[in-house]
């Protein structure tokens, strides 16, 4: 029996375990044998074991609860991390800049869609681990691989950099003009990396180049206007003096004619030394030739002076700085001035036929900007004819006409070039679009012309074309009086 209590003689109890068995004499029970031991140590051991078990169970329960919390926290952290990555990916997917993340070894860790588009590569996560040098290297002499590039310097020195005018030499043999910024980045596990943001600046550089050219042209225009002003005064002297000389010559011719008649009549009647001397002088000086040629020479000089004066006036008109407000303008005169200014461009390529409506009303407009539109259209027509008759001796034809149609005036500029192919007809006014050879066109002329006609004058600019026959650009402008324009401004 276990867990029993024995009472000692001193009335104290003792925990005991005992075994009792009968003493048999044959079949008769003669007594009993009792074997017992003190169970105090066993009970203490069992109590200690039970306490230890309880502590262990308590610790296991507490640790289980702690692990459960850690698992929950880790799960929430992973969800938050996934959400954060998804948000960051969503943000980078919408960026107009390319985004690359590259590790210290020069291997890609991330690319966004714009970066892949600009670098002309396919794949997303498939690009991770690919050396960045397989996509591009920095332009230089020689080209600069990643290990010697500023991107590696950013990772090593942990200092950001940026460059507003750089170029990538791409894997498909292109030179990509870019502006980029690069910053150090600490990735998971404490690794070093760099994030590269870049954007294509090709159009920006083209626009800057066009602005520079426009600035140069503006300077040349101001210079031309100044020269025209300086030439105008002496050419007026020349014209006035030529008219005086012509009038004086006519008076001299009357006197000489009268003298010739007197000499002929006198010598016919009798010998006269004075008359004979005058006749010999007339013959020596070839007065008959002078009488015939001098008026022609003066007339030609007057014609040349008038042409110079007309050119000077056209240059002054065309080169005059643009006004910030609209002015009443004679479109026929504006076209004539533009043709005069660019005569050297078309005179060896085409004949120009003008059909201007004499009753064309003056319109309220930005005259200098419309002059630029007309210049662009005439130069485009010249280039079209030049390409179509390349290698031939014939001249093409540029026809310019104006007419009034109700509240509108219409200007047509036609050429006998090859026309505009139907495939590109809807792109002809797009910025930077050109079919001309490299260096001959920027693709801005028609785009700027369209902006001036439509946005600044509320007009229309259209094109009609027949392949192999030619093209006609049609400018339609509203006829608006100053009072109507003022009323519109007040209403708006």
Key terms for this structure?
492 residues, 49% helix, alpha+beta, 16 strands, Beta-Lactamase, five-stranded mixed β-sheet, single chain, six-stranded antiparallel β-sheet
Q: In a nutshell, what does this entry contain?
A:
The chain has 492 residues and is an alpha+beta fold. It has helices at residues 40-94, 113-119, 150-157, 202-269, 273-284, 287-319, 331-341, 343-346, 367-388, 445-456, 482-491; strands spanning 4-7, 13-25, 28-38, 98-103, 108-111, 136-138, 161-170, 175-186, 192-200, 327-329, 350-355, 363-365, 396-405, 408-415, 460-466, 470-478.
Notes on the structure:
By secondary structure, the chain is of the alpha+beta class. It folds into four domains: 53 residues, no CATH class; 106 residues, Beta-Lactamase; 120 residues, no CATH class; 168 residues, Histidine kinase-like ATPase, C-terminal domain (Heat Shock Protein 90, 2-Layer Sandwich). Helix content is 49%, strand content 24%. It is built from eleven helices and 16 strands. The protein has a six-stranded antiparallel sheet. A five-stranded mixed sheet has the order 11-13-14-16-15. Strand 15 and strand 16 form a beta hairpin. The longest helix has 68 residues. The chain is rod-shaped. The termini are far apart. About 1% of the residues have low confidence.
